[in-house]
UniProtKB/TrEMBL annotation:
The chain crosses the membrane at residues 70-96. It comes from the Eukaryota. It comes from Dekkera bruxellensis (Brettanomyces custersii). This is Uncharacterized protein. Keywords: Membrane, Transmembrane, Transmembrane helix.
């Protein structure tokens, strides 16, 4: 280790500034003591000696107490900043691992690219860049596992085209590994986690593809579920993230519905998506399955966003089918969903008081507070609007109008700063205008139409999120206190 004073020109600087009136003879004696001390051994002892001599020089340099304090402050700042960076590195790795688990068998390089893709997808909300990173990971894993890549190996120019143009067409069948390549990880290395994480990667790739490539999305999802179903039967264990599988199945069902695929196939796809969430997220003591028994959702069941979206997708599909028996099922599920959400709202409202939260000017920070406002002004009005449309179709006109009015009025209260609420309010008043018009109340219908057109969509809905990894990590670990404790 090079001694501290050996790498500096400290004596020269002091000589050039004679105003300090330093005793140079004394300094030479100190330096001689320092050079003699080098032969004494331990690196830590030499560093300690350097610091003590440096401190003594500052004290002997005359009237410069402020310099000593400034250097001490800078030293403490460097130490604190160093410790903060270490803390952030550890917390960031843990946070990203919880967002998406990775396998150490992938290798450091592939995991780094994979996590970069997760950041682009879930934090900075850039699906295109995320998809590019996921595709790169799939290619590297294919090469690492000996899968010949016909897209790049037959013609080296294709590899250059792929690197320069993200829209370059390729055959995904030559990139995603089949069970033939993955079998060695299960049968030879007994590593089902590797296969599970690989399926997550492939699903993330499919879900971040642009909507215009719907055929590729559906094909990739089918490949992934072929791998998943194979190893779940062999290992009798679940493979892959249930949330990603749920999202993939709902996306596939949406594509199938757009392409007018058979009703039963789409229904099965949506049922499977909902069953995944029921298996992992249902905490109610009710043992009946909402899928197999088509029973009501228990009031004490908390419905997360994934569960609610899955229910809405299924009920919307049933309603659009115009089949009376399935419309009744949709109405039953939506009604029980509304009761469950209202039960959760009642519990949170007693604790936080939504009226007080709505009346205060400062932003809502607590997770429970955000959930309360979301339930009251977004989720419940959305379900009410869906139910009102079914009731209107069933010729229950008065009940439909009452629910539609309640939905539109509630969501309108929070529409000035929330895109979803504004959208629900606009559609709600537009539906009311149609209902009143068909009932013969032209004046009220016109008022509802004007009200719908007067609701402005918040500009924030069209802005690009400026959220950083640092912001996301601090919010995850420290909540609203993260910005206060660690500003900047």
């Amino acid at each position: 280790m090079v001694p501290f004073l050996q790498t500096t020109n400290f004596p020269k600087i002091l000589t050039e500034h004679n105003v300090l009136n330093v005793d140079l003879n004394f300094r030479r004696r100190r330096l001689n003591q320092f050079w003699k001390g080098q032969v004494r051994g331990a690196a830590f002892w030499r560093i300690g000696t350097n610091l003590r001599i440096f401190k003594q020089m500052l004290q002997d340099s005359g009237d410069n107490e402020w310099k000593y304090r400034l250097l001490l402050f800078l030293f403490l700042f460097i130490i604190i900043n160093f410790l903060f960076n270490i803390m952030m590195a550890i917390l960031t790795n843990i946070y990203l691992e919880r967002l998406q688990a990775t396998s150490s068998k992938f290798g450091f390089m592939i995991n780094s690219v994979y996590k970069h893709g997760v950041v682009e997808e879930m934090i900075t909300i850039n699906d295109q860049k995320a998809n590019e990173n996921y595709l790169r990971c799939l290619r590297m894993l294919a090469q690492k596992n000996g899968l010949k890549n016909y897209d790049t190996e037959e013609d080296p120019k294709n590899k250059q085209k792929l690197e320069e143009d993200a829209n370059y067409k390729y055959n995904i069948d030559n990139i995603i590994m089949s069970t033939d390549q993955l079998d060695k990880w299960y049968f030879e290395r007994n590593d089902l986690d590797y296969i599970s994480m690989y399926c997550d990667l492939a699903l993330r790739y499919a879900l971040t593809l642009p909507s215009k490539q719907s055929r590729l999305v559906e094909h990739t999802v089918d490949i992934c579920f072929g791998i998943i179903n194979h190893y779940e039967k062999v290992a009798h264990e679940e493979v892959g993230s249930y949330k990603l599988k749920n999202k993939a199945l709902r996306t596939k069902a949406d594509i199938m519905e757009y392409n007018n695929v058979n009703f039963d196939e789409i229904r099965t796809c949506l049922f499977n998506a909902l069953e995944l969430l029921e298996k992992h997220e249902f905490t109610s003591q009710n043992t009946k399955s909402i899928i197999k028994d088509v029973t009501e959702i228990p009031e004490d069941q908390t419905l997360g966003n994934n569960m609610l979206n899955s229910i809405l997708d299924l009920c919307s599909f049933f309603t659009d089918s115009r089949r009376p028996n399935y419309i009744n099922i949709a109405l039953q599920m939506l009604t029980s969903t509304l009761r469950s959400l209202e039960c959760e709202l009642s519990v949170l409202d007693k604790k936080y008081d939504s009226e007080a939260l709505f009346g205060r000017k400062q932003a809502v920070h607590s997770k429970d507070e955000r959930r309360l406002m979301e339930l009251k002004f977004e989720k419940i009005p959305l379900i009410q609007m869906e139910i009102s449309e079914i009731l209107w179709y069933g010729k229950h006109y008065n009940q439909a109008i009452d629910l539609a009015r309640s939905s539109a009025q509630k969501s309108m209260l929070y529409s000035h700063g929330n895109y979803n609420c504004a959208k629900i309010a606009r559609i709600g008043f537009k539906n009311l205008a149609t209902m009143y018009s068909k009932e013969g109340d032209k004046e009220t219908a016109e008022l509802c139409k004007v009200q719908s057109e007067g609701i402005e969509i918040p500009l924030e809905a069209f802005s690009v999120p400026s959220r950083t990894v640092r912001d996301a990590v601090l919010e995850y670990w420290f909540g609203s206190w993260g910005e206060v404790m660690f500003p900047g």
